[in-house]
Amino acid sequence: MAFQHLIYTALKQSALVFVLADRSGQILYANPAFESQTGYRPQEMVGKPVQMLAEANDRAGLGASILLALQEGQSWDGRIAVLRKEGPVLQSQATLWPVLEDTGAIEAVACVFRDITAEVNLEAQLRTSQKLEAIGQLASGIAHEINTPTQYIGDNIRFFEQSMNDLQGLLESFDCLLQAAAQIETLSPLTREIEAYKRQIDYDYLVKEVPLAVQQSLEGNQRVAEIVRAMKEFAHPGSDAYEPVDVNHTIMSTLAVSRNEWKYVADVETDLGADLPPLVCDPSAFSQVILNLCVNAAHAMEEMIEKRGSKKGKLRIQTRRVENRIEIRISDTGPGIPAGIRERIFEPFFTTKDVGKGTGQGLALAHSVIVDKLKGAILLESETGEGTTFVLQVPAGFGGHQG
After folding, report:
1. pLDDT single digits (tens) 12-25
2. Domain 238-398 adopts which CATH fold?
């Protein structure tokens, strides 16, 4: 069998979809696996623009990311939503690369992809399961957080009610004074009566404390609103759609939701860069990553307090732009991660927590989202007894470009 025919036979029998397009994006060839996964016969796709299969990705700027990589002579690897002839969109893991002439000019573009729809659905189910677990763990704390401001709002309102009853008597006395003003001989006794009543109800105290009570009530209402809004954002059902996300806003919302996890064991310090560009990602998955890292940090510092009698720790979150990347640093003053297990912390189901305190999926999910999906990196800085810092580095904009 001739070598070229052997290559053709291998492509024809491959379970992976193989597509070859010319430099303008017109399809030249597709193997039989293309029909089994998309429903389109290869013959009917020849001459059609390959972009028609991935229209759903244009909203995330994926097309521009792929084109930029190919124009630079680099390969691109990532997830693409492929339109089927009939039925739901096919989620695929794809690799595209330019076929170059000897001069370095692009002669064609090749692509292979495989159906990972089942894997994507399983990941979505896992995220939902983790989110429900996290919500369950946080529910009692959130109820406590809401109850506290609600309680002093109620106390202040009752204070207003009593105060206004007292003030009403004073206002009635003022009415009597106005009615008697025409009779000068009765003005002095009424004035003395009003002054005595002002002392009885501690008028000066009311003038000072009523505005403060109003201010506390407004602050309490704002706090309740922040908690409820953050919880709604976190609990919102995720989708596989990528969209621009404000990294700093996500961090602050996550801190609001998880406050009861860290407020007794750590003080929070934030240093959030003002010049961060949006991060195009799955908002639900990204917020879950931040939550997992913050809760892990709180648990580590709680361990220091319980086992070693340490003082309250510090949870520090910093964001900044480093060239074309967004860097997020989440640090704690916990016991640190032992050197012997640092290489295993991102393994699924690996955990050092006691039974019932963790599934071992938090860091595995973080690695999947940051490294696999966004083509970023997670760096670990840890020293035994000194604390741990996780450094998340993700490309600004959409994180699907890989050279």
Report:
1. 888 899 999 998 88
2. Heat Shock Protein 90 (3.30.565)
